[in-house]
Amino acid sequence: MNSLIDKYNIPGPRYTSYPTVPYWDENSFTPELWKQSVIRTFKESNAEEGISIYIHLPFCEALCTFCACHKRITKQHSVEIPYLESVLKEWQLYLKLFNEKPKLKELHLGGGTPTFFSPKNLKTLLEGIFETVEIAEHQEFSFEGHPNNTTKEHLQTLYDLGFRRVSFGVQDYDPKVQKAINRIQSFEKVREVTEWAKEIGYRGISHDLVFGLPHQTWEAMESTIRKTMELKPDRLAFYSYAHVPWVKGVGQRGFDENDLPSGEEKRRLYEDGKKLLEELGYIEVGMDHFSLEHDDLYQSLIQKKLHRNFMGYTSSKTQLMVGLGMSAISDSWYAFAQNIKTVEEYQKMVEEEEIPVVKGHILNDEDLTVRRHILNLMCQLETTFDIHNSFPELENAFEMLKEMENDELVEINGHHIQITEKGRAFTRNVAMVFDLRMMRNKPETRIFSMTI
C-alpha cells in the first residue's frame, strides 16, 4: 500500500461538483441564465423530491489556522441580526422564481460557526424560512456546532425546529496540535455537548477528525480516536488536512509547513486511523466518512441512495440546492452558482434586490454525462458507461484505468467500473480519469489539495 500511496498521492479535486470550481466556464454564465436554470429544475423536481437549502453563516470569534472556509472573524455579535435579515431577503428573491410552494427536504447550517449566532436569532431565521415552505415528510435538517460555544439551548432550540443531525468539529485532542491550529477545546467540553445532544434526542451525531495537521503524531491520533470512541458518535468524518495556503483569505499560515507530517507520517495517520476505526465498529461510507450500521449514511449506501454535493455526503438527494448567504454555492443540477464572497457586498446586492451570484457554470450535455459517472464513483464506487452516450476520450480513459486495474484498485468488466476495497482510498484518482475539463486544460499551478 505504501508504494501505491506514493504513486497516486497527487493534487486532485474532492468532487463535491463536476465541473470543479476552478474549471467553471464563467464567461458563458450570467445571473439570468442561473435564474432560468433554477426555474426549470424547480418545476421538474419540487413536487416529487423537494429542494435543499444550504445557509452559510460566516462569523467566527477566532481564526482556526487549518480552516479553508470563507469566514469573517469578529467578536461583535451585533452583526447577527443584519446578516440574518439579508439571508431572509435573499430567500424571498428565490421565492419569486417559484410557481408553487417549495417542499423543503434538506437544510444545512454551515460556516463559519453557525453556533456563533444566538439560539433566538437562529430560530427567527429558520421560522422565517419555514413559514414559506412545506416541510417534507422525511426531512434532513443538520448543523455544524463548535463544541466551545454550542449551548444546550442551541441544541434544544434547533431540535424543536426539526433538526436531528449535528456535526461537532473535533480535529484532534492533542494540546500541541490544538495550539498550532488555534482550536483549543477539551475532551470534557466535547463530551458535554455530545451527551446533551444524545439526551435531547439527536440521532445523527457526527464528529469531524482531521489527519495531517501540524505536529500530529500517530500516538496523538490514536488517542484522539479512542477518546472519540468513548462518546460513540453515530458517524465520523476522517478528513485529510487540505493545505491550500495559496487560496486567498483562508488563513493557513499560522504554522510553518515544516511542522506538517511528512508523506510517510501522514500515510500512517491515514492507514492506521482507518484500520482502528473499522476495528472499533465503524464502516467506511463513500470517501472520508465512517458510520455505525444503524446510521442513515450507511443505510443510504446499502440502498444505493447516497448522494454527494457541496454539503458533502448526504443520505437524500434533491436536484435543486439553494445556497443562501455570503459565498454560498447553489446547484440546480444543470448549473452551479456562487454568491459574492464578502459580507458587505453580499448585503448590498440583496438590498438592491439582486440574487447575489457572481460566478457559476452552465453544464452542457457532456458535463451532465461526466457528472453522473463521477457521482456514481464517489457514492456507489461503481458506474457503467453507455457507449452510445459517451465522449471522445472514453477509450483513452479506460486505457488509463488499466494501470489502476493492474494495481487492483478497480475491476473493469466491459464498460463497467468497480472500485475495489483496496481502491477506496484512491476514489478521487479514479474519478480524475474522467475529468474532461481538467484533462483538456491541465493546471499550470497547483490548485487542489493532495488526494490522500
From TrEMBL:
UniProt binding sites for S-adenosyl-L-methionine 2: 66-68, 112-113, 171, 183, 208, 242
Q: Which SMART domains match?
A: Elp3
GO MF annotations in UniProt: 4 iron, 4 sulfur cluster binding; coproporphyrinogen dehydrogenase activity; coproporphyrinogen oxidase activity; metal ion binding
Binding-site list for [4Fe-4S] cluster? 60, 64, 67
The UniProt annotation places S-adenosyl-L-methionine 1 binding at 54, 111, 144, 329
> Which cell locations does it reside in?
Cytoplasm
Record carries keyword Magnesium: no
The cofactor named in the record is:
[4Fe-4S] cluster
Instruction: Please indicate if the UniProt record lists Ligase as a keyword.
Output: no
What keywords sit in the KW lines? Answer: 4Fe-4S, Cytoplasm, Iron, Iron-sulfur, Metal-binding, Oxidoreductase, Porphyrin biosynthesis, S-adenosyl-L-methionine
Question: Mind telling me which PROSITE patterns this protein's record contains?
Answer: RADICAL_SAM
Could you tell me which Pfam families the record lists for this protein? Radical_SAM (PF04055)
Q: EC number(s) in its UniProt entry?
A: 1.3.98.3
Q: What does this protein do?
A: Involved in the heme biosynthesis. Catalyzes the anaerobic oxidative decarboxylation of propionate groups of rings A and B of coproporphyrinogen III to yield the vinyl groups in protoporphyrinogen IX.
Assembly, in brief, is: Monomer.
The similarity comment for this entry is: Belongs to the anaerobic coproporphyrinogen-III oxidase family.
What protein name does the entry list? Coproporphyrinogen-III oxidase
